[in-house]
Amino acid sequence: MSHKVRYYGDQATFPAGACVHCLRPATQELELTRVKQRLSGGYLARKVRVPFCEVCLALREAKTPRQVRFERAAAAHSLLLALVVGGYLYVTTASLNLGPWGLGENGFWRALLGLLSAQVVFGLLYLLARSWARHFQSADTRAALRAVSIADFDWETTTLEFADGEYAERFTQANQGNPLG
Ligand SMILES: [Zn+2]
Predict the structure, then answer these.
(1) CA distances (Å), 87 to each of 78, 82, 83, 119, in order?
(2) Could you read off the pLDDT of 18-52 as tens digits, one per residue?
(3) How close is the Cα of 114 to the center of ligand 1, in Å?
(4) Cystine design at 20: which of 83, 96, 133, 148 (Cβ 3.0–4.6 Å)?
């Protein structure tokens, strides 16, 4: 169960420099960002710096061997597929009569089209693969990522969500915030 704490403003006091995840002394700060779309158009962003220790920061970024293997294999396959798509477009557009632009006769434009398509295909597949690879994150990494997040904010208040109840309580005391359950 997570614990939400709302406080006024965007500057918070973090209890005695303790790491948000393990409560040991924090050595670094991590900037959390949350962006919201405004009804009137445009975006509203809130940034909060939270204390972490080195161990927990490393945990947040750690990748399991399985995750690394998956990402590597996915990158290789994405590249291969992208080259096939790009090559296919380069070859097939040669026989196309694309009207006044003369795309079919121009080898340069066909090569450019092939390369750009390959890049788009690779980019999309690789992004997809990276987010899919997060399924292989360790439980420790997931816990460290869940330690704190910006749950909500508006002009006057910021709501942080903590995984640890004890930390949330100390944070509430330090900021006279309103725990939202
Ligand atoms: Zn820590």
Answers:
(1) 14, 8, 6, 12
(2) 999 999 999 999 999 999 988 888 888 999 999 99
(3) 48
(4) 148
